[in-house]
Amino acid sequence: MNKKKGLWAIIKPINNYVKFSIGLSILGGVTSVISYVLLAFVLSLSLGGEVELFSLKFSFNEAFITLVFVVLLSFLLGYYPSTISHLGAFKLEAILRTQLTTHLAKVHLGYIITTGTGALKKVLLDDVKNLHAFVADSIPMIGRSIATPIASLLALIIIDYRFAIVAICVLVVGILLMSFAMKNTNENRVKYEQNQSDINKSVIEFVQAMMVVRTFDDGTTSFKRYNNSLDEYRIHLKEWFSSTKISSKISMIIFSPIPTILAICLVGIYFMANGTLEFATFLATLLISTGLVDALLPLMWVSNFIKKSSASAFRIQEILELPILNYKEDDKKLENFNITFENVSFKYENRDDYALKNISFEVKENSTTALVGFSGAGKSTVAKLIPRFWDVSSGAIKIGGVDIKDISNETLMNTVSFVFQDTFLFNDTILNNIKMANPNASKEDIINACKTAQINDFIETLPKGYETIAGDRGANLSGGQKQRITIARAILRDTPIVVLDEATAFADPENEEEIVKALSNLMKNKTVIVIAHRLTTIKDVEQIVVFDNGKIIEIGKHDELLKNFGVYSKLWNNYENSQNWDLHIKGDVK
Ligand SMILES: Nc1ncnc2c1ncn2[C@@H]1O[C@H](COP(=O)(O)OP(=O)(O)OP(=O)(O)O)[C@@H](O)[C@H]1O
C-alpha cells in the first residue's frame, strides 16, 4: 500500500496511463499553438505578404501543407489523451474498489458496524467515482492547459517579445482578481462537503428508518431532517457565491479572450502605424493570445478538481490504512472443540467503561452453555468476540486450546457458525441464499437442511419454490421465516461449534414452535453457546453463565442457580411472572 498520502499516491497504480495521457496532451497544446502561428502565416501569404521565421522563408504551399498536417496532428492529440485517461480511470476504479472491499473484508466487523453504511457508501461509491472523474477528465486537461499558455508565451517571445509583455500584464490582472474570487475556497469547500455528507446521511436514514418512522408519524420528522440539511446546503452555497460574485465575474471577463485581443489590437495598431510590425506577425500574435487565454479557465477548473479529488483520495486512504485482523496463515491443530474464555476484558473504542471485565468460563465439547443476564449485561458482546467482530482488549479466547487469533480465518469459519438476530438475506433466490453457507452443497442437501430448519414446507408453498427471490435484505419474507433460513444456512454449514442468539422478537406462537424445533435440531451433537431469552428452553442445558454489568456473577445448572436466590433466580421469577401475566390476560378475555 502507498505510504505517501494524497491524490498522486493513490493514482500510482495507473501511473503509466497518467504519464502517457499528460505527455500526449502537452504535445497537443504545443501543436495547437504551432497551428495558430501557421494559420497566421497562411493568411498573410494568401494576402501577398512574405513570411520569414529563423531566417527561413515559407512559400504559401509549404505553409499550407504544414498547417494541414499540424492541425490533423493537433486533432489526434486532442482526442487520444482523453481515450487513454478514460481507460486509466476505469482501471483505477476497479483497483480501488477491489482494494477497498478486500481490505474492508479483513477489517474488524465492529468497525463496519460503528462507521455505518452511509459513510462507507460515500467512500466506496462517491469518492471512487470522484477519482474516476478526475483521472478521466482532468488528467488530459492538465497537460494541455499547462503546455498551451507556456508554448503561447514562448511563441510570443520568439515572434515579438513586446506582445508577450502585453499578454503577461493582462494575465497578472486576471490572476489577481481570480485569487480574490477564490479566497476562503478551502474552508468553503470543507463546509460544502460536510453539507453533502449530511444530506447523504439523512437520505439513508430517511429510507432505512422508513418503517420505524411511519409507526410514529407520517415521515415528516425525518423528512424535516433531510429538508434541514438541504436548506443548510443551499444557504451555504448562496453565501459562498455571493461573497465571490463580483470578483469572479470580473476575472471571468478578464480571462475571456476579448480583453487580451483588445490590448494586443491596440498595441499592434500602434506598432503597425509606426512601422515596427509586420502584418503576418500581428495576425500570429492575435491568434496565439486567444489560445493563451482559452487555456487558463480550464486550468482554474482543474486546480479546483484537484482539491476536491484530494479530499476523496484522503478518505479512501484512511480506510485502506485501517488496521486489519491478523489471521494466522499456518493453523495450529485444534485438539478438541472446547471453548475457553480466559480473563477476557473488552472495551468498545467509543466507550470509557469496559463492556466485559475479566471473564473466564469454559464450554465443553458437545455441551450447551447459555448466556443470560439483564439487558446490556454483555451477552452479545461475548458472542461477537468469538467470530472476532472485535479482538479482546486483554485475556484470550481459545478453541481446542488454541487462541482464536492463531486460527486462520478459513478454519475459524469452518469451525464456528453464527446465528444472530440481524439476519441478512441477499436479493437473490432463496436457494442461493442458503447455498452460500456451503457452495458445494447439492440441491438435495439444501432441501434436507431446510427440512431440519422447519422451513421447507413454507418454501414449497411459494410459486417459484426455492427459486423465489428473497427481496432486498429479505423484504419478501417474515422475520421468523428469515430466521429459519439463517438456521438452514448454519445446518448446511455443519460446523462443530454453533453460537446463536435465540431471538424471540419475530416469534408468533406458531413460528416460535418451529424456530425452537429448528434450533434444537441445529444444536444436536454440537458445542453450543446460546444467548437465551426464553429461560424455559435452557432448563436442561449443561451450563448457564449469568452476566451482570460485564461480569460473570453466577455459573451453574438451572436447579443449582435457583437455589442461590441470586440474579438468575430473579430473572427466572421475572420470566415466570411474565408468562403467568400472559395467561392471566387470556383468562380475563374468557
Ligand atoms: N457497538 C457498540 N459500541 C459501543 N458500546 C456497545 C456496542 N454494543 C454494545 N455496547 C455496550 O456494551 C454493553 C454490553 O452490551 P451487549 O449488547 O453485549 O449486552 P446484552 O447483554 O447482549 O444486552 P441485550 O440483552 O439487550 O442484547 C452495553 O453497555 C452496551 O451499551
From TrEMBL:
In Pfam terms, one family for this protein is ABC_membrane
Indicate yes or no for the key word Membrane. Answer: yes
A cellular-component GO term for this protein: plasma membrane
What name has this protein been given in UniProt? ABC transporter ATP-binding protein/permease
Looking at the record, the residues that make up the ABC transmembrane type-1 domain are 20-308
Q: Which chain regions cross the lipid bilayer?
A: 20-43, 63-81, 165-182, 250-273, 279-302
Enumerate the subcellular locations listed in this protein's record, separating them with semicolons: Cell membrane
User: What is the membrane topology noted in the UniProt record heading this document?
Assistant: Multi-pass membrane protein
Query: Where on the tree of life does the source sit, at the highest rank?
Result: Bacteria
Instruction: Give the keywords, sorted.
Output: ATP-binding, Membrane, Nucleotide-binding, Transmembrane, Transmembrane helix, Transport
Q: Which GO terms describe its molecular function?
A: ABC-type transporter activity; ATP binding; ATP hydrolysis activity; ATPase-coupled lipid transmembrane transporter activity
User: ABC transporter domain: from which residue to which, for each copy?
Assistant: 339-574
InterPro entries, per database record: AAA+_ATPase (IPR003593), ABC1_TM_dom (IPR011527), ABC1_TM_sf (IPR036640), ABC_transporter-like_ATP-bd (IPR003439), ABC_transporter-like_CS (IPR017871), P-loop_NTPase (IPR027417), Type_1_exporter (IPR039421)
Q: Which SMART domains match?
A: AAA
Question: What organism, scientifically named, is this protein from?
Answer: Aliarcobacter vitoriensis
